[in-house]
Design goal:
By secondary structure, this protein is α/β, with parallel strands linked by helices. It is built from ten helices and eight strands. The radius of gyration is 17 Å and the shape is globular. The relative contact order is 0.15. The chain binds 2-phosphoglycolic acid (PGA).
Length: 267
């Protein structure tokens, strides 16, 4: 069996769906976890996800410094690795950045782009995010393109307009068959406020329409936790979750990966 670090470029993960709908359960550790903490986490986590159904990709996005540790510690397990960002060039004078070939060497198969934190703290515009997504795909990484409105945009009734712009500019020139989109309302990130499931589902359905692909995998993110995952995953247009805070606890994140969807909500 080829280990994660030895996969040839361009064939890391197959997002095409067979008869069973693919689901992505991704944990974004943000700026948390030293290598020692990451090793302890993986030791605790792996036995707890052994029975997760095979159509669910369980993905961890550690900080860059822990990528190699997590890749080695997860070995040939079913855990896939994501980076938290990627640059579009292979190399160059870009202090603080990291390129897709560098990530690929560490067994990375997904990469988050356009998360609301770099959008907010470093003013990343949609065209830069689009470059990142294209650069990732050029090297076989699957971008997880994050979109979402702020609290004030929601209050001003701009939600759909903002997300549509982020989606349309983000996917320009991007192969949507090798793309995941995460709908993450900014006001729900790290606040404990989850978007009502029906509303999250409605926005995900709109995103599907704007992308123009019934098969695009759309995640919900924003205060996902063990207590709400079953209801979130019962929504017809939500194909997985991007989890921040709750992914730092291996027990809780394993419970999220082992979700049991409630009976699908009629909408
Ligand atoms: P949260 O973060 O789960 O802590 O709200 C989600 C995210 O930032 O992706």
């Amino acid at each position: 069996m080829v280990s994660k670090g030895e996969l040839p470029l361009g064939c890391c993960v197959d997002l095409s769906r067979g008869s069973v709908r693919k689901v992505v359960i991704a944990g974004n550790w943000k700026m948390h976890m030293t290598c020692a903490e990451a090793r302890r986490y993986i030791d605790d986590f792996l036995p707890r996800i052994q029975n997760v159904p095979s159509e669910r990709d369980v993905v961890l996005a550690p900080p860059f410094t822990a990528l190699s540790t997590v890749c080695t510690a997860t070995g040939d397990s079913r855990v896939l690795i994501s980076s938290q960002n990627v640059h579009w060039d292979d190399n160059g004078a870009f202090t603080g950045e990291i390129s897709a070939p560098m990530l690929h060497e560490h067994g990375v198969s997904y990469t988050i782009v356009g998360h609301s934190e770099p959008r907010k703290y470093y003013s990343e515009p949609d065209e830069v995010i689009n470059h990142r997504a294209r650069g990732a795909q050029a090297h076989g990484l699957i971008p997880i393109l994050c979109v979402g409105e702020s609290n004030s945009q929601r209050e001003e009734n701009l939600t759909e307009q903002v997300i549509r712009r982020q989606v349309e500019q983000g996917i320009e020139g991007v192969d949507v068959t090798n793309l995941v989109i995460a709908y993450e309302p900014i006001w729900a990130i790290g606040t404990g406020k989850t978007c009502a499931c029906e509303e999250a589902n409605r926005i995900c359905e709109l995103i599907r329409r704007w992308v123009g692909s019934d098969d695009i995998i759309i995640l919900y993110g924003g205060s996902v936790k063990p207590g709400n995952i079953d209801e979130i995953m019962a929504q017809t247009h939500i194909n997985g979750v991007l989890v921040g805070g709750a992914s730092l606890d291996p027990v809780g994140f394993a419970r999220i990966a082992n979700y049991q969807p409630l009976a699908a909500t009629a909408i």
